[in-house]
Amino acid sequence: MNYFKFEYLWLDGYKPVANIRSKTKVIHMDSFDGDATKLPKWSFDGSSTRQAEGHFSDCTLIPKRAYLDPARENAYLVICEVYNPDGTPHASNTRQTINEEKAKDYWIGFEQEYVLMGTNGRPVGFPEGGYPEPQGPYYCAVGYQNATGRDIIEEHFDICLKAGIKITGINAEVMLGQWEYQCFSIDALKACDDLIISRYLLYRVTERHRVIAELHPKPIKGDWNGSGMHTNFSFPYMKEVGGKEYFEKYLTEFGKYHDEHIQEYGAFNDERLTGIHETASISDYSFGVSDRGASIRIPSYTPEHDWKGYVEDRRPASNADPYRIIARILKTSAIAHEAAIS
Question: Which residue ranges does the record assign to the GS catalytic domain (predicted)?
Answer without folding.
Answer: 89-342
